[in-house]
Inverse folding.
């Protein structure tokens, strides 16, 4: 049995007494009016929200919830896009001693019903009409649900049900309560304990029903602290929050790390504009699923092919230099002076601008996780000078447990465990973890808890091994690993990931199947790893238009088969 | 904003009485009476060439009727030029989009606010103080009230001429709204749109009619019967310069003459939905 | 305005930032460099001939700005802009020569500056007079009324009547020392140059500001679609006349400025050809952009000077063919314009924009 | 009174020549929407060509015919080389090309034929005037007028009754729609330029016969503008009427107004008159109005 | 559909405007001889561009087919000029009722017959048009710019008919027309298809209408074909129902009053 243990490193003192809301209270007091806590792109501007605004909003929402009858330990659910209001609601819940439950924005109605019912949710924060409609339609089946709070007034003018209340009205209630009891908020914030449940996180169940993981304040905070001790961030940094809050990775960045460090969290205008908005901000820290990085590389490749000759030559040369230097670094070999100069040249002529286009020009650490990523994509970003790292984690450890270290990146591994985390591989090859961030258990599901938590070790249900350098290699979900006739384990996904960058496949994780007709189609057959944010895409065949004339050139040589940006502009006569 | 004091829901906002209009010998309108009440969506339907557009042009002043009076908020406006009527609070969109193709979406909408700008040419020339402040105020209004309502965030800086037709229509609506009109004339806002865009447009029309912020009275000319019947409070049927009837959507749908002249027996083609 | 390409990490938190002209440090740096070039490098390193070429360019820019405003931004095609330059020049000249200036004003050098303002206003009003038909007349028909402005103003009123004032015959000569701004007598190319730079920057700024405010948008709206502009509450006639006024105003400044460069003012300085030339300038520079007026002026003046340079040595060796070379020059010029229009119909400003995009999009093409 | 009648007749007859050139102008405008500012130079070329051949001893009619053929070829060449590539470009650009063309033609003409005034020697038309009733009309004038009238009839018939005539009008109206039903816009434009060049050649030759030929004949190209605008840019009869009115106006002003406003009244009058006229009829006499079915 | 009797074959074309703006990408469409094929899709999806690529009008707008080929009755036409293509028997009815405004209705129709010598055949052509569109007979001497929208649409279709086409490309014939007129025009279109054996490629926003007349339809989104099937099958497709036909899951029509402020999620674009 291999065994790695990293001692916890000191830093921000996180005691068992500290809760997220206490930290929030202190940070908001510390930064006050002078610093921007978050920005939302709204009305064409990056509207700044200072820590003071953040604090006030949370305070009134929180008091409003109390006024509506929230008791410590009650569950409050949130559903909606990434907006400051979502984070406020979550924080308000915690401040009032409640437990926050996040739902995916595109949850199907049955799933919403199951989660709201199972978690005994008392209040639901829905963003707008769509969420309110969903909630209203299941109101009768979730007896615990008392109030639905909405925020976006679009289309809400004809809703007059008693169970509905707007965000603003809720805050007004809060203000009234503050008038009556000015000290209540501070008292509320200071009463919790670090081991109290903060979040109830539902992990996906493609086959079974979702399980609700209970995460304590301490889980979250230690998680953030340990990650930051590996890759420090600063309170002047920018971060863009656009992945669903119902995904633990986003919670980790926005709450665990964001709150501790106090960096600015930026929210895109619309989900569709996220990519563009990221470019505008140019974040210092980034966390995205491999899909997004893969999309970036693909779009770069396509654009490169469509560029003019001179531009192509520059790009080719620069990427050759970049790849060479990156390979030297991967191999931990010294970079000769001449290559350093060339690298500089490549940076000035191409990479600087290219990073700017991708919104990566300020990025210090870029993480990818949730699914495996093809090594070629990995190399691509390093060749560009982007410090991309693989991470491994799951909801049950409140985020991540393993990450690459600077200058020690092997792209088929996920790196070393973060401080405070122990990783072991069982005899069966299963990865197990022990750390202060390991969750408390599954809500109302002792059997599952028993299976997952044994002696403080979390059984991940993932197969993997540690390589000669102590790097963790994740193979696949246990159920997806087949055994070949000679007894060797075989993972289709593992293979597929390594094929991803092959030029013959058009879409990520896709395989080309020839249908009976002449038209080959690409259909995605991958199932995203369970913790991935995009799980909802699973299995649905995605039809991409790869039509072509069967008699023309082989399609991989046919330029038109390449995905290309379709310009929406159309000159009209 | 431009609301006349004392106007309540249901008061007469615009009235055409006995309006005659002819071009040469061709009579386009012969004695039209129409009353639009505040807060209503009043639709005008009729075959092509029935004079609907002429009627719209008369209301906003592009044509002057030979006979009859037009009253807006109780005031006779026959002699006012279109831009003066715009100032009174009549805005419109056109059948074929008439946007300013070379300008960006934002500038198009800014232009709709023209009558609300106060700065003169001199302060514009130095662009300090008033002009600058005003630009910022109006920008905030446009972003908060119009771009947000019409969901055109992604295209605000694009030149309108480059946009697809459906979005151009939306921009045109935004431009008309920026005027903060009391009466909004929508001349075939749905023509050439696909169902998705029609749904959006219907939603916007309802929003601006019902939202407390707007409460704009709409005069809707449209061939899409599904939308007309669903949205309108009243429907006015015009046939070659004459009114067939003016009544509720249900009454219009069952009126034999309307069916004969306009709707046709089969509903098959009447609406896209 | 806010449609400029911004590098990653530059974002706006207020509309004021979003409306600003120069939004990145890079652009500000460029502007500083330009200022250094204009005020620090050119005036001290250029010789008299080069400065006079610069002045010619500046004059063309001032003239072309008005044409650009009318044609490029307001859609009112004008082929008679030289008339307003002439009105400006003559107003200024007449004021300086004929007006009983108090001695102290002369001494303080106020006569010329005041006459420039007066010239601008008179030219503006004169322009409005000929803009009046635009209330009814549109498109090509308007070309004719603007042409009428040219012929009536220059060929008739100025040639036949104005020029007779004071019994000077065809030309007003300007004695040395009459053109005086404050303490400086404008008597060298260098001084003209500085005056030109100040005026050009001033006019460009004013026009650019107008274009991003209420009036400018109304003009563009009229250009793009006058019916819907009217329906949106724009008093179309008023704004058209305003455009004519501003165009005439800047034209008047141009004319009044140009007399500082002349020994005598005569109608030959403002022929119809000059009106056409100005339209050519904005077409070659790019219609509908202030850059266009500037690039076009530089390009056109440069082309003419180059043709001159090319012809002169030839004329030396073939003195008999001197006349013919003039004709060849004319034909070549015409051909050059044709070719330019055919191969570069969007003008230099478009190229400029494309060039910027080329680097902004580097290393891609979109 | 006699003076008036004389002036009037001369005006009408000179107007005939203007009308001819105006016809060519209208043709180009009608078909391709090009506002041709090189018309004067085109006139000049036609006139010089026929003059050259005539001076070489070629009979006048033959010289005219040769000039027509050369005009035809030049017209097609001009269209092919310069204007074909500009289809779909903004009108102003196209106008500017014609301005460039006018410089080019002018420079070329001056280079080939010089700037001195040249006359048709021996005179083609007898200087002996013809007496029609009380009026005395120069033969040149009369022939010009006749030529103008004949061409007018030809043009009107062409537009009304031939498929190419219809196609030309259709192209002017909506080029895209015309293309979609198989009208070749290229042929239409080329034909228009060829015909215009020819008409200008005839006009120039006739005018050269009156006062001799020099570069100032190209001023005719400008005078054509008030004429066509008066008629309404795209109306063939309008061009004729406009041309004649301008001719008359010019002569009347020259005779009666010159003593009150000495100087260039004759040159200015057409433009001043037009500017005022347009205020009342913004689309000329028979111009196509913008059909606004808003 | 077998390959033999296809009158029009669009093979994997790519269309660019001004050499840079890519509008249509990898589009293949086939129209059987004597058939009606509909092309559905959102605004700006590139439907009109596809039609213009076929009729050759694209070149006129600075556009070009940069890849793939278009075959009409076995001959490649993607490099030909518009008038050559028209001569071969393809006529496009451009969207927006583009009549020659200043000509009379009859002159409009005559321009349609431009490719023929004048004479009897024109007379026959006119008679045929007046037979299908009796209303045009009444208006034949009126200036086309002043007749009503419906009559203009008829004029345009009639003008197309005058070219004696084998294939008509119809671009949004129902746009802005009254219900009764739409009915009339579509009846005539079907009649033309039936009686004159004219093949039709129809671009239409009104999907219900299009699927009623066309047995086969293609769906286009952002420059690509995302679906193609028979009309019946398309009518059953839940996405088509939702996005193009406006039906609820129960087959009822949605009321426009109840359109929600939801975010749209298109399954086929996922």
């Amino acid at each position: 049995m291999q065994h790695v243990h990293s001692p916890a490193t000191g830093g921000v003192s996180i005691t068992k007494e500290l809760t997220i809301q206490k930290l929030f209270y202190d940070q908001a007091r510390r930064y006050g009016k002078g610093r921007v806590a978050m920005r939302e792109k709204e009305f064409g501007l990056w509207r700044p929200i200072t820590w003071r605004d953040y604090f006030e909003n949370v305070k009134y929402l929180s008091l409003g919830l109390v006024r509506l009858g929230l008791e410590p330990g009650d569950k409050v659910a949130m559903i909606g896009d990434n907006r400051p209001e979502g984070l406020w609601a979550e924080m308000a819940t915690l401040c009032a001693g409640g437990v926050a439950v996040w739902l995916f924005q595109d949850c199907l109605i049955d799933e919403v019903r199951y989660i709201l019912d199972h978690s005994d949710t008392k209040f639901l924060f829905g963003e707008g009409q769509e969420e309110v409609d969903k909630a209203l339609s299941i109101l009768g089946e979730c007896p615990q649900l008392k109030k639905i709070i909405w925020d976006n007034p679009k289309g809400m003018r004809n809703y007059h049900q008693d169970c509905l209340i707007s965000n603003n009205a809720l805050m007004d209630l809060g203000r009234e309560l503050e008038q009556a009891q000015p000290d209540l908020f501070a008292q509320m914030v200071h009463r919790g304990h670090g081991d109290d449940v903060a979040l109830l996180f539902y992990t996906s169940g493609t086959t079974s029903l979702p399980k609700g993981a209970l995460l304590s304040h301490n889980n979250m905070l230690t998680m953030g602290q340990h990650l930051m001790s590996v890759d420090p961030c600063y309170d002047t940094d920018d971060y863009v929050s656009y992945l669903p809050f119902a995904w633990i990775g986003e919670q980790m960045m926005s709450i665990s790390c964001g709150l501790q460090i106090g960096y600015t969290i930026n929210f895109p205008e619309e989900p569709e504009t996220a990519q563009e908005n990221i470019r505008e901000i140019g974040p210092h820290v980034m966390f995205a699923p491999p899909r997004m990085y893969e999309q970036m590389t693909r779009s770069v490749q396509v654009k490169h092919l469509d560029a003019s000759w001179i531009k192509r030559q520059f790009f080719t040369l620069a990427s050759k230099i970049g790849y060479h230097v990156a390979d030297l670094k991967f191999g931990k070999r010294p970079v000769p002076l001449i290559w350093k100069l060339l690298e500089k040249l490549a940076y000035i002529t191409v990479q600087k601008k290219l990073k700017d286009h991708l919104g990566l020009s300020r990025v210090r650490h870029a993480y990818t996780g949730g699914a495996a990523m093809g090594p070629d994509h990995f190399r691509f970003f390093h060749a560009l000078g982007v410090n991309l790292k693989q991470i491994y984690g799951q909801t049950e450890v409140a985020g991540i447990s393993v990450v690459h270290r600077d200058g020690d990146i092997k792209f088929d591994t996920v790196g070393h465990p973060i401080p405070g985390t122990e990783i072991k591989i069982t005899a069966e090859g299963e990865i197990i973890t022990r750390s202060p961030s390991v969750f408390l258990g599954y809500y109302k599901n002792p059997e599952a808890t028993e299976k997952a938590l044994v002696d403080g070790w979390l059984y991940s249900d993932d197969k993997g091994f540690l390589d000669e350098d102590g790097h963790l290699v994740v193979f696949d979900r246990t159920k997806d690993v087949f055994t070949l006739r000679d007894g060797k384990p075989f993972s289709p996904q593992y293979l597929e990931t390594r094929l991803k960058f092959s030029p013959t496949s058009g879409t990520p994780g896709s395989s080309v199947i020839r249908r009976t007709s002449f038209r080959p189609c690409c259909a995605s057959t991958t199932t995203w790893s369970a913790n991935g944010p995009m799980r909802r895409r699973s299995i649905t065949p995605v039809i991409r238009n790869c039509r072509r004339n069967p008699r023309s050139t082989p399609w991989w040589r046919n330029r038109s088969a390449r995905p290309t940006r379709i310009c929406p502009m159309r000159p009209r006569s | 904003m431009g609301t006349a004091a004392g106007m309540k829901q249901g008061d007469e906002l615009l009235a055409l009485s006995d309006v005659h209009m002819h071009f040469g010998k061709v009579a386009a309108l012969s004695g039209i009476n129409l009353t639009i009440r505040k807060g209503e969506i009043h639709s005008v339907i009729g075959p092509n060439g029935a004079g609907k557009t002429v009627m719209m042009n008369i209301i906003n002043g592009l044509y002057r009727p030979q006979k009859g009076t037009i009253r807006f908020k109780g005031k006779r406006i026959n002699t006012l030029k279109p831009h003066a009527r715009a100032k009174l609070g009549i805005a419109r969109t056109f059948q074929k989009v008439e946007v300013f193709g070379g300008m960006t979406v934002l500038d198009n909408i800014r232009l709709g606010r023209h009558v609300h700008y106060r700065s003169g040419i001199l302060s514009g020339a130095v662009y300090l103080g008033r002009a600058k402040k005003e630009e910022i105020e109006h920008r905030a209004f446009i972003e908060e009230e119009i771009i947000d309502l019409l969901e055109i965030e992604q295209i605000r800086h694009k030149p309108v001429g480059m946009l697809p037709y459906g979005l151009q229509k939306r921009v045109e609506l935004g431009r008309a709204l920026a005027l903060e009109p009391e009466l909004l004339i929508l001349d075939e806002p749905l023509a050439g749109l696909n169902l998705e865009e029609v749904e959006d447009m219907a939603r916007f029309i309802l929003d601006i009619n019902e939202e407390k912020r707007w409460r704009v009275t709409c005069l809707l000319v449209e061939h899409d019967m599904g939308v007309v019947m669903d949205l309108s409070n009243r429907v006015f049927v015009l046939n070659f310069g004459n009114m067939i009837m003016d009544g509720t959507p249900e009454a219009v749908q069952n009126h034999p003459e309307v069916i004969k002249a306009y709707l046709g027996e089969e509903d098959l083609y009447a609406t896209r939905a | 305005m806010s449609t400029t390409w911004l590098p990653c990490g530059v974002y706006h938190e207020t509309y004021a930032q979003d409306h600003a002209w120069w939004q990145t440090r890079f652009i500000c740096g460029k502007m500083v460099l330009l200022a250094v070039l204009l005020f620090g490098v050119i005036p001290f390193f250029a010789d008299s001939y080069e400065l006079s070429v610069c002045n010619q360019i500046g004059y063309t820019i001032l003239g072309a700005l008005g044409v650009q405003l009318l044609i490029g931004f307001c859609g009112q095609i004008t082929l008679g802009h030289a008339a307003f330059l002439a009105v400006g020049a003559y107003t200024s000249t007449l004021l300086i020569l004929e007006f009983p200036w108090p001695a102290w004003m002369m001494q303080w050098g106020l006569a010329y500056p005041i006459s420039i303002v007066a010239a601008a206003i008179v030219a503006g009003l004169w322009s409005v007079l000929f803009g009046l038909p635009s209330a009814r007349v549109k498109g090509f028909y308007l070309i004719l009324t603007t042409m009428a402005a040219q012929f009536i103003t220059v060929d008739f009123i100025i040639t036949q009547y104005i020029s007779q004032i004071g019994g000077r015959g065809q030309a007003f000569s300007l004695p040395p020392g009459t053109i005086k701004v404050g303490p400086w007598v404008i008597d060298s190319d260098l001084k003209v140059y500085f005056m030109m730079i100040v005026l050009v920057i001033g006019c460009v700024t004013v026009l650019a500001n107008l274009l991003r405010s209420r009036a400018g948008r109304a003009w563009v709206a009229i250009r793009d679609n006058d019916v819907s502009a009217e329906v949106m509450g724009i008093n179309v006639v008023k704004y058209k006349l305003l455009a004519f006024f501003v165009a005439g105003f800047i034209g008047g400044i141009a004319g009044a400025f140009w007399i500082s460069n002349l020994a005598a003012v005569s109608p030959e300085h403002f022929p119809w050809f000059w009106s056409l030339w100005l339209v050519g300038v904005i077409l070659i520079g790019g219609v509908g952009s202030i850059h266009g007026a500037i690039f076009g002026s530089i390009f056109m003046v440069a082309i003419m000077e180059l043709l001159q340079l090319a012809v002169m040595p030839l004329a030396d060796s073939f003195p008999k063919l001197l006349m013919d070379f003039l004709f060849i020059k004319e034909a070549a010029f015409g051909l050059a314009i044709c070719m330019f229009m055919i191969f570069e119909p969007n003008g230099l400003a478009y190229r400029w924009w494309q060039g910027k995009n080329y680097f902004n999009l580097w290393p891609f093409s979109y | 009174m006699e003076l008036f009648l004389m002036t009037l007749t001369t005006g009408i007859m000179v107007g005939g020549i203007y009308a001819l050139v105006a016809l060519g102008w209208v043709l180009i405008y009608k078909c391709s929407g090009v506002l041709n500012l090189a018309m004067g130079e085109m006139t000049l070329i036609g006139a010089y060509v026929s003059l050259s051949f005539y001076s070489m001893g070629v009979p006048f009619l033959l010289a005219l015919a040769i000039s027509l053929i050369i005009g035809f070829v030049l017209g097609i060449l001009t269209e092919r080389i310069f204007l074909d590539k500009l289809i779909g470009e903004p009108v102003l650009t196209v106008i500017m090309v014609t301005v460039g063309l006018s410089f080019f033609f002018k420079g070329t003409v001056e280079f080939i034929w010089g700037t001195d005034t040249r006359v048709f020697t021996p005179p083609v038309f007898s200087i002996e005037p013809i007496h029609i009733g009380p009026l005395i009309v120069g033969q040149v004038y009369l022939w010009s007028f006749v030529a103008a009238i004949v061409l007018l009839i030809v043009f009107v018939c062409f537009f009304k009754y031939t498929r190419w005539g219809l196609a030309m009008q259709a192209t002017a109206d909506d080029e895209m729609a015309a293309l979609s039903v198989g009208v070749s816009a290229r042929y239409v434009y080329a034909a228009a330029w060829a015909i215009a060049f020819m008409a200008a050649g005839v006009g120039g030759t006739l005018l050269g016969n009156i006062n001799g030929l020099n570069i100032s004949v190209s001023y005719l190209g400008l005078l054509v503008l008030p004429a066509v605008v008066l008629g309404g840019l795209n109306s063939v009869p309008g061009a004729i009427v406009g041309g004649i009115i301008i001719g008359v106006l010019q002569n009347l002003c020259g005779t009666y107004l010159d003593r009150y406003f000495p100087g260039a009244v004759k040159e200015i009058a057409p433009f001043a008159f037009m500017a005022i006229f347009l205020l009342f009829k913004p689309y000329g006499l028979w111009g196509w109005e913008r059909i606004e079915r808003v | 559909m077998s390959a033999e009797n296809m009158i029009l074959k669009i093979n994997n074309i790519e269309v660019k405007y001004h050499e840079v703006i890519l509008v249509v990408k990898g589009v293949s469409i086939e129209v059987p001889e004597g058939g009606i094929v509909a092309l559905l899709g959102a605004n700006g999806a590139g439907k009109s561009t596809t039609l213009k690529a076929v009729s050759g009008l694209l070149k006129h707008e600075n556009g070009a087919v940069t890849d793939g080929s278009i075959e009409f009755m076995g001959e490649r036409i993607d490099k030909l000029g518009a008038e050559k293509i028209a001569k071969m028997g393809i006529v496009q009815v451009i969207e927006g009722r583009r009549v020659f405004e200043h000509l009379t209705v009859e002159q409009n129709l005559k321009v349609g017959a431009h490719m023929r010598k004048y004479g009897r055949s024109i007379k026959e052509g006119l008679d045929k048009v007046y037979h299908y569109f009796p209303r045009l007979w009444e208006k034949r001497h009126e200036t086309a710019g002043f007749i009503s929208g419906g009559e203009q649409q008829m004029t345009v279709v009639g003008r197309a008919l005058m070219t004696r086409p084998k294939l008509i490309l119809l671009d949004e014939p129902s746009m802005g027309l009254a219900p009764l007129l739409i009915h009339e025009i579509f009846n005539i279109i079907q009649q033309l298809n039936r009686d004159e054996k004219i093949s039709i490629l129809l671009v239409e926003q009104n999907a219900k209408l299009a699927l009623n007349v066309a047995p086969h339809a293609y769906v286009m989104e952002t420059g690509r074909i995302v679906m193609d099937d028979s009309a019946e099958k398309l009518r059953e497709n839940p996405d088509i129902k939702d996005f193009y036909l406006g039906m609820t899951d129960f087959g009822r029509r949605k009321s426009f009053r109840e359109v929600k402020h939801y975010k749209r999620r298109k399954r086929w674009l996922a």
